[in-house]
Amino acid sequence: MILEHTLHELGVNPAPAPAELTVIFCGEGKPVGGHRNGPGVHDYYLVHTVLSGSGLYEVNGKRYKCKAGDTFFIFPGEPFFYEADDRDPWSYVWVAFIGSGAASHLSGIGVTASAPVIHGGGRKIPALYRRLRSRLLQADNASQITSLESAGYLRLLLAEFAIANRHMLPAAAAFSSDIERRIALAVHLLSTHYAQSVSIERLSQTCGYHRTHFSAMFKQSTGYSPKQYLLKVRMERAEALLATALPIEQVASSVGYGDPLYFSKQFHKWSSRSPSAFRKSLRSG
């Protein structure tokens, strides 16, 4: 006997473009009791959120009972099986997606092939599925716009899943003192804002300390003064850029030096070679 599956709506991305996150399709359905899917394997990520009823999801030899509010994730290449409850069959919404950043996004919210179920979720989740499906149902030939908008809704969904799954999120770095936290902030700022004009005095103020005390604590924590650390970040980035075809003047400006000559002098102090000599050594090596 063929078990029926009632499909309410299916929204399809007409031309999914490769990206960090790309929605392929999404839909909503209410299977009859006992309806089964699998065993099988997909080559994309597939997420189901149960709206009502219940069912069974099986992956990696483990079985998960899922009810209204629960979400289960199917991973590419992972054999799966799921089945609606005989007496109280589930209804669910789903979204399928691919992307170079998909695995890291899921692991970042505590979802992996060994932890593929989130129990419970916020009221925003069904509404986001509806908006996503509505957008795909209205899709036209402007595939880039469709992909961007649908990926945006997917990110909002992932954020809601993260809230529901907060107890499984990777632990944040623990700091034993306030100064450690502020030094970490300073390291982050120097590592990301090296291309700009950086004032150590202003950085100290941002972190809430006098420059002398801040510099001493920064060196105690990192082994470098703030100025030395900034130089290190800039020079290491310059070395990476010199491995490309980018003109030296542009390398200089890319790492925070408006004067290419001054950059060359600083780089020579750092590596004992001029930028052009360093680039030549990379090519000859």
From TrEMBL:
Record-annotated HTH araC/xylS-type domain positions: 184-281
A molecular function GO annotation: sequence-specific DNA binding
PROSITE patterns, sorted: HTH_ARAC_FAMILY_2 (PS01124)
Record key words, sorted: DNA-binding, Transcription, Transcription regulation
Source superkingdom: Bacteria
Pfam family, one: AraC_binding
PANTHER family: ARAC FAMILY TRANSCRIPTIONAL REGULATOR, HTH-TYPE TRANSCRIPTIONAL ACTIVATOR RHAS-RELATED
Name of this protein: AraC family transcriptional regulator
